[in-house]
Design goal:
Elements lengths: L2 H20 L7 H17 L5 H23 L19 H29 L1
Helix pairs in contact: 1-2, 1-4, 2-3, 2-4, 3-4
Length: 123
């Protein structure tokens, strides 16, 4: 296995684990999820994975969602006594959508690696 492939797999695997850990607390863990989405996207890019585009979009969505989450939180939230409609909650949707995309893409990348390893071992 080449060095770039090893790093690629390690980054994706570490990112996948960190994405799950960060999801335990969506607000406090959002920074961890953001970093993990970046690791997964970087790992896919290094490994020239077919999942690169999906994981790149995942990272951008997580970034936008986390920015909205922290921005709204700093401004006092939404709904209730905040004076902002509950509809402001829609601004947070890129975060969970990007998180799910990241999980799917990371697992797809790890499956690609497993298939490539099996083919190189058989041939």
């Amino acid at each position: 296995m080449r060095r770039a492939e090893s790093w690629s797999r390690l980054l994706v695997l570490a990112g996948l684990v960190l994405m799950w850990i960060g999801a335990i607390d969506p607000l406090e863990g959002s920074i961890l999820v953001l970093a993990a989405a970046g690791l997964v996207a970087l790992g896919a890019q290094l490994g020239k994975s077919r999942q690169r585009a999906l994981l790149g979009w995942s990272f951008l969505r997580v970034t936008a969602g986390v920015a909205a989450l922290w921005g709204l939180s700093a401004a006092g939230g939404f709904g209730g006594a905040s004076g902002r409609s509950d509809w402001w909650g829609l601004a947070l949707l890129p975060y969970p959508i990007g998180w799910v995309m990241g999980l799917i893409g990371a697992m797809g990348k790890l499956r690609e690696d497993a298939r490539a390893h099996a083919q190189s071992s058989a041939g």
